[in-house]
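Throughout our pipeline, every protein is held as a single compact record rather than as scattered files. The record that follows is passed on verbatim for readers who wish to inspect the format.
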Amino acid sequence: MSQAQRRSSKHSNYLLHTKLMSPRLPSAVVQRDALLARLDASLAGRLTVVTAPTGFGKTTLVSMWLASRTFRSAWVTLDENDNDPVRFWTYIVSALRSFDPAVGKSTLSVLTAPQPPPFQTLLAPLVNDLRRLKEPCVLVLDEYQVITSPAIDDSLSFLIQHLPDSGHVMLISRKEPSLPLGILRARGEMMDITAAELRFAETETQGFLRGTLAADLPPEVVARLQERTEGWAAGLRIAALALKNKNPAEMEKFVRTFSGNHRYVSEYLIREVFDSQPDGVQDFLLRTCFLNRLTASVCDEVTERKDSAAMLEQLERGNLFINQLERGGDRIWYRYNPLFAESIQYLARQRLGEAEITALFERASRWYEYHGLYDEAVEAALAAKLFDRAALLIEKFIEIHDLGGMHTLSRWLESIPQQEILLHPVISFAYAQVILYSTDRFAPATASRIEPFLRAAEEAWRAEPNHQRLGQLLTFRGTVAWWRGDFQQAFEFGRQALNELPESDVLWRGSALLIVTYETLNAGWILEAQDQILEARALLGAAQNIYGVLAATQVLAEVFYWRGQFEQAEQLNRQILVEAVGDASMLDDQGVASLYLAHIAYERNDLEEAEQFASRALGLAEQRLNELLQVQATIRLAAIHSARGDRGGARDLLQSLEARIQNPVLLRDIQNMQALLSIRADDPAPLGGWVKIISAEDPNVLRVQKEREAFTLARLQIAEGRAGPALEALGTWRADASENGRVRSLVEALCLETLAHPLNSSEAAECLIQALTVGHAAGCRRIFLDEGRRLAARIQAILPSLPNRTLRLFATTLLHSFSPEAAYPFAPGPSAVPVEALSRQELRVLRLLAAGRSNADIARELVVTTNTIKTQVKSIYRKLNIGSRPEAREVARELKLLD
């Protein structure tokens, strides 16, 4: 059995199976044929919502319907704990598997992973499983009003909207759910049944009372009860119990003594019912009314008596607001009517006192623990304010569920005093993770809030010593440090963690290795980073950590980008955009993927697409308050403005951002871009302060950041006529880039060395030929174009001596692509290839030509006329100096115009 299978099996053993049982019908029910017919008709849609206050017979109606029909159904009774999405969907999928054991098998397995994927991703295979069911199947969710989680509402909406024709969801709730009901109503895909329809008519009231009392009441008594209760089933039921064994005169007097709203009626009548019970029954009710579900064993434990089985049977026979659920194993389970239980709880607190109620909860908690129901055991311990006991139980819960019940854990731990939590390192560590993953991970206040819990856990595990736990905590510290922008500290934690973690801990080793890979990547050691990230991704995949796998995929895409392998980088980033859907944290992954797609489009000189992706990345960064992504996206947008000749717009973007950024390391990147704009505008005078900043030692500055600053400084030195220092620094960085796989850096260094050498020198020619060779192979364009007229002049000067047609084509294309402000008119020489830059539409046509499509096919694809395509093909042939489709494919391949 795999680790995931063991987790799934272990997890399923701790489900409270009574939640999956539909209530048994009371002994006396009113047949409601019109409503049952409406429920039959509801199966034509996707959703039925039965809404009414307590006591209107919602659950009874649906139970009656299911009991009288032959189609398959599954039932889940919800409670407040089910606001945890993992817990909610575990119960839902477990219920759906009653239709067919194959349904939801993979979904249930993934739910038990340490970090389940987003719920839309998780539910897609579940929907596919349901499509294989051909007969009608109904899923009933009772007590849906307890669900307050927007994430659950959203994910349930997804399931409902993608249900196959055979599937139907029925919600029973005291209020209308927060679902897109308007859309479903407009489409005719849902039905409502409300309190107005559930109220008993007078004939139904008469039938109900006759069945309950086994006798006919005087018509005037029935009429008065109908008037006072307005057909409210719970009020009638309570009244029937109160009327038992009364003579007509007593009945008449009783009916005259109450009036008013449902709350008054219920409190008054329950008192009447309760006070009429024998002392033994009253005592049993007072001591068990706090239990959500009852079975003889737990009642014996709580009440310290031995006759609970007989007492429960007696209460059911007496129709005393208790319903028997389906049999669960060798136990019979019951549930009090919620309205009845709440009223008795009020009496219990008055009559038993808090000390005795605390003892009741403690005994219940121990029974739940003995039977492996840890969530129920925790709830009972917290109700009794037995915090030490609750903490020990929560540790066992974490051992079983990891952080799968994050919402539940958060609610529990918020109920326990912090000093109590700090005594338990496992709980302290878990609480730190819950806080980080459920709040703003980038906010300094979040890191401050979790620090006491991390410090307490770390001190305990160092003292033991517990190396594995310590390694996990250090890995988590590294993640916290990374998100708050303290990169050097994150790297240090990552290295320390790998020294503590055993090889078998694939989840945390993968996470620690991911952090260390960031360090390797930012040190510029791209080839080593590639080896590390492939290992990290494999470990995180084995741990079924979708968030870690996405992060590792993003780093791998960045590795490909640095190596000039843009096609592979683009493919991975587009994959991330498809897979990173679901919770809000996925927006960070989408933002980074969009940023790198902007980088790739920019390098290919597709400024329109680069701007679209960079703007999207910036929007997501601002939404998530992600400073690092905000800075990177804004710098890319500034570069796009500059490439279009709008340096004023570029400066405005950077100045606006600079005023909002607090992290000094990120501020340096903004200042570096500002310096670069000044140099390209031939205005290097005000850069003395910037030079002092980058010349000072700062251990927090990453090596690739130092490289960017070194290249900008080299441009400044070249502009000032100080080529010697520039060449010395560039030579060192070029050698390092070549050795460590930074292809883009290698091309940029060679271009700058070309500019540092005299125009017609052999050194300049050698550097430029190498830059063109490497840059063409990688598909680089903007690296050349951004250097402007001085590099354009050197490209034209070297054009006749380029060693092959491919490089001459590439160089000629670059010369045509320099912006007009480069102010270096291109005059084709005898060795130049007469090539003009292709428009965006011509590139689209060229791609389809190279794929072997006919003119008519291309016209249909691009929604234009065939004559338009013919004109564009002629233009392409003229610009590329070719005469056939095979030549078009060859030239396009040589120029890498199809990347």
Summary: The longest strand covers residues 167-173. Residues 1-13 have pLDDT under 50 and may be disordered. Residues 481-557 form one domain.
